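[Meeting: bench + compute handoff]

Bench side (C.D.) handed over the final construct sequence. Compute side (W.E.) agreed to return the predicted structure before the next meeting so the bench team could plan truncations. Sequence as handed over:
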Amino acid sequence: MCIRDLKVGEQKTVSCFNCQNIGGKLLCMGVKPGCKVTLLRKTNFDKTFYLKIDASRMAIRSDEAAMIELR
């Protein structure tokens, strides 16, 4: 399961990243395996996902969301 599969309001835990490039970027932003992710909102046609990750909030693109595996 990845972030794109979440429903609004659903919470899961980050298990791993499918791409090293995106993994490095997300680690720098404080997203790491074990973080709690809640989907707050998504835009039309699921292009952008607005997330709460632990105490932070951020928006990510659909291609980035597909590379974050959840459990």
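W.E. noted at the follow-up: Residues 20-28 form the longest helix (9 residues). C.D. will use this when planning the next construct.
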